[in-house]
Write a structure and sequence with these properties.
The structure holds two protein chains of two kinds.
Chain A: H1 3-29, E1 34-38, H2 45-58, E2 63-67, H3 70-87, E3 93-96, H4 105-108, E4 113-116, H5 119-122, E5 127-131, H6 132-135, E6 143-148, H7 156-162, E7 166-173, H8 200-207, E8 213-215, E9 218-219, H9 224-234, E10 241-242, E11 249-252, H10 260-271, E12 273-278, H11 288-304, E13 307-310, E14 313-316, E15 322-326, H12 329-339, E16 352-355, H13 356-359, E17 364-370, H14 381-384, H15 386-392, E18 396-405, H16 408-414, H17 432-444, E19 447-449
Parallel strand pairs in A: 1-7, 1-8, 2-5, 2-6, 3-4, 3-5, 6-7, 9-10, 12-18, 12-19, 15-16, 15-17, 17-18
Antiparallel strand pairs in A: 11-13, 13-14
Helix pairs in contact in A: 2-3, 7-8, 9-17, 10-11, 11-12
Chain B: H1 3-15, E1 19-20, E2 34-40, E3 48-54, E4 61-64, H2 71-90, E5 96-99, E6 102-105, E7 111-112, H3 116-130, H4 143-158, H5 169-176, E8 177-178, H6 183-186, H7 189-196, H8 204-211, H9 226-242, H10 249-280, H11 287-307, H12 318-342, H13 344-353, E9 356-365, E10 369-371, E11 379-381, E12 384-389, E13 400-403, E14 406-419, E15 422-429, E16 450-454
Parallel strand pairs in B: 2-7
Antiparallel strand pairs in B: 1-8, 2-3, 3-4, 5-6, 9-12, 9-16, 10-11, 12-15, 13-14, 13-16, 14-15
Helix pairs in contact in B: 2-4, 3-4, 5-7, 5-10, 7-8, 9-10, 12-13
The chains are: A alpha/beta, B alpha+beta.
Region (Disordered) (chain B): 463-495
Biased composition (Acidic residues) (chain B): 486-495
Chain lengths: 458, 495
C-alpha cells in the first residue's frame, strides 16, 4: 500500500467517523423524534446500527430494533451480541421470532441471546430485535428508542403498524435501492403525504420535514473503479467516495483468454467493469443464449482460479464470493440450471444466483449481472427501476460483469420516461431512464462483443 | 400479460375469432342487475348528459340533461336517477339471513356499466353528489346526497379485486376471452363484442373495424363521439337554449332525447348481449364465496347508512389508506388463487411459470408417522406422496402447495428429483386426514391419481392491526382533524 493511499483511507475513515459521531450526538441530545441516515452501498450501515445500539443499551434505556427480513435480523443479532459482550456485558439481546420459531444455528448458542415467539417470553431484555412483520403483531408496550434498519425497503403502512411502539427512532437505509412495491395498483393515494405504497422514510420525511438527515460518505465495499459510475448514476446529488483509492484493490485471473467470456473477465479485472454484448435480438425472458453466456462467465471465473487483493490482504475468489444477479425469478432458475453443480444448492461454497430483491444488502468479490433490459422489446417501469440496476451494480468489491443484448440504448431512446406526474407527489430522482443511460455510457468503452454463434442455443 | 394469454391472443389474431381464456365464469351475475349506461358532456369534468338505466332489457329508462352546463338540471338528473337507483338498491336490504357474526342479506344489488370509464363516471358522480346539502343555498333533493353515498360505495367496491358489485362489461369479457387486438382496443365494448360474438358472415377483425366507426356504432361512453357532438348535440342544445315560449320546451327536449337515445340504445343492447354470453358459462366454484363477501359489505354499508350515514371522506386518512391497501392486497391474493383453483385454463398460467404442476401419483407412504417437533415423543401422521410430472416445476423445498381437488389439505414440498421423463416431486401432507392415528379413508391421494398442485395460495395470515385513526403516530403526521360536516363541503361556483 502506498503512503498516499494510507492517508486517503485514513482520512476517509475520519470523515466517516465524523458523520457517525454526529448521528450519535443527535441521538443523545434527542432534540428531534427521529434521525435519518442515508447510506450508499456498503458504507457501514450495519456497523452504525450496531454502534448506536450499543450506545443506547449502555445508557440503560430499552431499545427495539426493526429489520426487514429474518436474515437481516440474524445478521444484526450476531454482530450485536459480539459487540455487547465486550461493551455492555450484562445486556441481553431478545430475538423475537414467529410462532414455532427455532433460532438459526449461528445465533442459537450465543450466551447473551434470548429467543421467544412473544414479547412476554423474552423477559425485558435490553435490546429486542425482530422483523417489521413480527413487530406489527406486538400489541402493547412502548420502547423509548427504536432503530429501523433498511428503512427504504419498508413500506409506509408497515411503519404505521409499528410506530406506536416507540417514542424516538433512528432510521437507517439506502435510498438508491429498490423501493417497496404493492401487488395492487390504485391511484387514489397519489399526492397524499401518507400514501401507503411509498417507503417508510418517504412518509416520515414528508410528515416531518425537519428531521435531521445524515449521509454516510464512504463506501467501504465498492472499489475505486465503481465510485464515479455508481455515484453519478444513482446518487447524482449527494455522491460518495470509496474507502480505497486507485490500485488498492486488484483482481487477478490467471490463464489465457479462450473466448469472449475470458476476454470480458480480463477486461473486468483490469478496469473493474465489463460488458459482454450479445447480438441484438428480441427474446423471451429466459433468453437461452444470454443465460448460457452468464453461466459461462461465472464458470470461467471459478475455473481460472481468480484471486482478489485488497490492500495487502490477498484471497482466492471462491465460488461463494461470486454472485449472479437477474431481474426475474425464472431467469434465476434458468441460470442456476445452466451453472449445474456450481449452483444447484447442494451445499456451501457455491455461486449465489438470485434476483435483485434478494441480493439487497449482500456483498461479493465479483458479480455477473444479466441486464434487466437485455433482449426486451419494451422498457417497463419494473425493468427501468433505478433501484434494481443499482442493487445489481453495487454488490461487488472487485469487479462487475454485465451481460446484455446489444440495442439497449436504442430501446431506451424509444421508451423515454412516460410515467404520469401526480400533483403533490415528490419526483423520484434519479429516474431509471437516466440511471440506465449513465451506466451504459460507462460500460460502452468496456465491452466485448460475442459473435453470433458464440452462445447460440445448444 | 401471461404466457397463456399472449398465446391466446396470437391464436385469436391468427384465426380471427376470440379465444376463450377461461372455462368457467369468474364473476357473479345477479338475476336482476341494474344496467347503467352513462354519457357525459365533452369539455366539462363529469357533467352528466344522459343515461340509459334499468333492470329490464326491453324497458330502459332514458334520462337526459337538456343543458348539462346548468347545475340545477344536473342535480335534477341526479334526483331522477336516484328515483330508479335507490329503490333498486334498497330493495335487497329486507331479506336477511342471521349468521353467527351478524346479519347478511340473502342477495345484493349489482350495478353493471359498459366499461372502466363508466366505473370512473360513477365514482366521480358519487363524489359530486354525496356532499350536497338539502337545505340552504343550492339545496338539492334529499335523495341526491343519498345517491352519492351509494354510488361511492359501489365505486369503492369496484376497486377491490374479485368484487362483483359493480363490474364493467368490457372487464368481464376480457377476463374470459382473448381477442387479436390490443388491450386498449379491448376497452371498446363494441369492438370487443365484435370479436367474441361477430354478426353472421363477419369475422372478428371485420366486426371490430365496423364497430370502431362511430357512424355505425356510437362509443359506449361516457365520452360521446365528437362528430355527434358537433353535428347533432350542439344544435339541439342550442335550440333548447333558444326556446323562449315554455310551451315549446317539450319539443326541444324531445329532440335531444331522440338524439341521445340513438347514441345509447346500441350500447344498452351490447351490454345485455355481453351478459347473455357470460351467462352461458358455468359459474366458478369460488364465485358464490366472493359474492357472500359482497353481500356482507352491502349489508354493512346499508346498516351504516341507517345508523350514521355521513358521506365518505374526500381522501383516505393515513390509517384508512393503509387498511384499504392491506384489504385490497389480501383480496388480490385470494382472488388470484381462487381463480386458478376454479379453472384449469387459469391454472395453466401457473403451470407455465412453474408455480404449479400436474402430475400423477407414483408412490404413497400413507402411514408415515413423525415426531411432532414439540418434544414429549408424540407422533403425528405425515404421509408422503410422490408425483411424477413433466411440467417445468420451479418450486423450492419447504414451499406450501395445495391440490385443486384436495383444497383442504396443505402439503409441503420435501424433495425434487429429476427422473427419466420429468421430475419426481415428493410432498408431505400436513392436515386434512382426520383425528385418528391412521389417515381417514380417501384423505390421502392414491397411486395412479392425477392431481394438480399449486403454490399460488391465498395469504391466510391476517394483516397487522393498524392503530385507530385518532392514534395516528407522529411518523404519519399525527391524528387528523375529526370530520365535521360544514358549509365548506358544498362550496363551489354554482353558476
Amino acid at each position: 500500500m502506498s503512503a498516499a493511499s494510507v492517508t486517503s483511507s485514513a482520512s476517509a475513515a475520519e470523515e466517516a467517523e465524523r458523520v457517525i459521531q454526529a448521528v450519535l450526538g443527535d441521538l443523545r441530545r434527542g432534540h428531534s423524534r427521529g434521525v435519518i441516515v442515508d447510506s450508499p452501498p456498503g458504507a457501514g450501515k450495519s456497523t452504525l446500527v450496531v454502534r448506536a445500539a450499543a450506545v443506547i443499551a449502555g445508557s440503560g434505556e430499552p431499545l427495539m430494533i426493526v429489520a426487514q427480513t429474518n436474515e437481516q435480523v440474524d445478521d444484526l443479532v450476531e454482530r450485536l451480541a459480539a459487540r455487547l459482550a465486550d461493551e455492555v456485558p450484562h445486556a441481553r439481546v431478545g430475538r423475537l421470532g414467529r410462532a414455532g420459531y427455532a433460532p438459526s444455528a449461528r445465533i442459537a448458542n450465543l450466551p447473551n441471546i434470548v429467543t421467544a415467539s412473544d414479547i412476554a417470553g423474552l423477559g425485558d431484555p435490553e435490546v429486542t430485535i425482530s422483523t417489521a412483520a413480527k413487530w406489527a403483531y406486538v400489541r402493547e408496550g412502548t420502547w423509548p428508542w427504536a432503530i429501523v434498519d433498511e428503512a427504504y425497503q419498508m413500506r409506509s403502512d408497515t411503519l404505521l403498524a409499528i410506530a406506536s411502539r416507540f417514542e424516538r427512532a433512528l432510521f437507517v437505509g439506502d435510498p438508491g435501492q429498490l423501493d417497496p412495491f404493492s401487488t395492487v395498483a390504485n391511484d387514489r393515494w397519489h399526492g397524499l403525504v401518507w400514501n401507503p405504497t411509498q417507503s417508510a422514510v418517504a412518509v416520515l420525511q414528508r410528515a416531518n420535514p425537519d428531521l435531521p438527515v445524515h449521509r454516510l460518505p464512504v463506501s467501504w465495499r465498492l472499489p475505486h473503479t465503481a465510485q464515479s459510475v455508481v455515484a453519478d448514476a444513482f446518487y447524482p446529488f449527494v455522491g460518495f467516495r470509496t474507502g480505497t483509492g486507485p490500485g488498492e484493490r486488484a483482481l487477478t485471473i490467471p490463464g489465457h483468454a479462450r473466448g469472449p467470456a475470458d476476454e470480458v473477465l480480463d477486461l473486468a479485472a483490469a478496469t473493474g467493469w465489463g460488458l459482454l454484448e450479445l447480438p441484438a435480438r428480441h427474446t423471451v425472458r429466459t433468453d437461452a443464449e444470454a443465460v448460457s453466456a452468464v453461466a459461462d462467465v461465472a464458470r470461467r471465473l471459478v475455473e481460472r482460479g481468480a484471486s482478489a487483493r485488497s490492500g495487502t490482504d490477498e484471497r482466492a475468489v471462491t465460488p461463494d464470493r461470486v454472485a449472479v444477479g437477474a431481474a426475474h425469478r425464472d431467469q434465476v432458475v434458468a441460470i442456476r440450471a445452466a451453472l449445474g453443480d456450481l449452483a444447484d444448492g447442494s451445499g456451501p461454497g457455491q455461486v449465489v444466483v438470485d434476483t435483485a430483491n434478494r441480493l439487497q444488502g449482500r456483498e461479493y468479490d465479483v458479480t455477473v449481472v444479466l441486464h434487466p433490459l437485455s433482449g426486451r422489446r419494451d422498457a417497463t417501469a419494473f425493468h427501468l427501476e433505478a433501484g434494481r440496476l443499482c442493487v445489481l451494480a453495487s454488490r461487488h468489491r472487485q469487479a462487475c460483469v454485465v451481460v446484455a443484448r446489444a440495442g439497449i440504448r436504442d430501446l431506451l431512446d424509444t421508451h423515454p420516461t412516460s410515467d404520469p406526474v401526480h400533483l403533490g407527489e415528490p419526483v423520484k430522482f434519479p429516474d431509471g431512464w437516466a440511471a440506465n443511460q449513465a451506466v451504459l455510457a460507462h460500460l460502452a468503452s468496456r465491452s466485448v462483443q460475442a459473435g453470433g454463434a458464440a452462445y447460440a442455443a445448444r | 400479460m401471461t404466457a397463456i394469454s399472449s398465446y391466446a391472443r396470437a391464436l385469436a389474431a391468427a384465426s380471427g375469432t376470440a379465444v376463450p381464456t377461461a372455462t368457467v365464469r369468474h364473476v357473479h351475475l345477479a338475476a336482476r342487475p341494474l344496467i347503467l349506461v352513462p354519457l357525459a358532456m365533452a369539455g366539462e369534468a363529469n357533467a352528466p348528459l344522459a343515461a340509459m338505466v334499468g333492470t329490464e332489457r326491453e324497458r330502459p329508462e332514458l334520462l337526459v340533461v337538456p343543458q348539462p352546463r346548468n347545475r340545477d338540471l344536473r342535480f335534477a338528473f341526479a334526483a331522477r336517477l336516484a328515483e330508479i337507483f335507490l329503490p333498486y338498491v334498497l330493495g335487497f336490504a329486507a331479506d336477511i339471513e342471521e349468521l353467527t357474526n351478524g346479519p347478511r342479506t340473502v342477495d345484493a344489488p349489482q350495478l353493471i356499466v359498459p366499461n372502466q370509464a363508466g366505473v370512473a363516471f360513477v365514482r366521480l358522480f358519487g363524489r359530486s353528489t354525496r356532499f350536497r346539502t338539502t337545505t340552504g343555498d343550492y339545496a338539492v333533493e334529499p335523495s341526491v346526497p343519498l345517491l352519492g353515498r351509494w354510488l361511492t360505495f359501489f365505486a369503492e367496491r369496484a376497486e377491490v379485486p374479485g368484487s362483483s358489485l359493480m363490474p364493467a362489461a368490457t372487464e368481464m369479457l376480457s377476463l374470459h376471452w382473448a381477442t387479436g387486438q390490443s388491450a386498449l382496443e379491448d376497452a371498446n365494448l363494441a369492438a370487443l363484442m365484435g370479436w367474441i360474438d361477430p354478426p353472421a358472415g363477419a369475422d372478428g377483425p371485420a366486426a371490430a373495424r365496423l364497430a370502431e366507426d362511430p357512424r355505425h356504432c356510437p362509443p359506449a361512453g361516457p365520452t360521446t363521439d365528437p362528430g355527434f357532438d358537433n353535428e347533432v348535440l350542439a344544435p339541439a342544445i342550442a335550440a333548447y337554449d333558444a326556446v323562449t315560449d315554455p310551451s315549446q320546451l317539450p319539443d326541444a327536449v324531445k329532440r335531444l332525447e331522440e338524439a341521445l337515445h340513438s347514441q345509447l340504445q346500441p350500447t344498452w343492447d351490447l351490454v345485455w348481449r355481453a351478459l347473455d354470453r357470460l351467462r352461458v358459462l358455468p359459474g366458478g366454484a369460488s364465485v358464490p364465496g366472493r359474492w357472500e363477501v359482497d353481500r356482507s359489505r352491502y349489508t354493512g354499508f346499508h346498516t351504516y347508512m341507517i345508523e350514521e350515514g355521513l358521506p365518505q371522506a374526500r381522501r383516505d386518512g393515513a390509517v384508512a389508506a393503509a387498511r384499504r391497501l392491506n384489504r385490497m392486497e389480501r383480496a388480490q391474493a385470494s382472488y388470484d388463487a381462487e381463480r386458478a383453483f376454479d379453472d384449469p385454463l387459469v391454472m395453466a398460467d401457473h403451470r407455465v411459470t412453474g408455480e404449479a404442476f400436474l402430475g400423477s401419483v407414483v408412490a404413497v407412504d400413507r402411514d408415515r408417522r413423525v415426531p411432532n417437533g414439540r418434544g414429549k415423543g408424540r407422533l403425528v401422521t405425515r404421509p408422503l406422496v410422490t408425483l411424477r410430472t413433466e411440467d417445468p416445476v420451479r418450486l423450492a423445498l419447504g414451499m406450501k402447495v395445495v391440490a385443486t381437488r384436495r383444497r383442504r389439505q396443505e402439503c409441503v414440498v420435501t424433495a425434487l428429483e429429476p427422473c427419466d421423463a420429468g421430475i419426481l416431486v415428493t410432498l408431505e401432507a400436513q392436515n386434512g386426514m382426520g383425528r385418528s392415528a391412521a389417515p381417514a379413508p380417501g384423505s390421502v391421494p392414491e397411486v395412479g391419481e392425477s392431481l394438480c398442485y399449486s403454490s399460488v395460495l391465498a395469504d391466510g395470515v391476517r394483516s397487522a392491526t393498524m392503530p385507530e385513526a385518532e392514534d395516528t403516530p407522529w411518523t404519519h403526521g399525527g391524528p387528523p382533524q375529526p370530520y365535521e360536516p360544514s358549509e365548506q363541503d358544498t362550496a363551489e361556483a354554482w353558476e
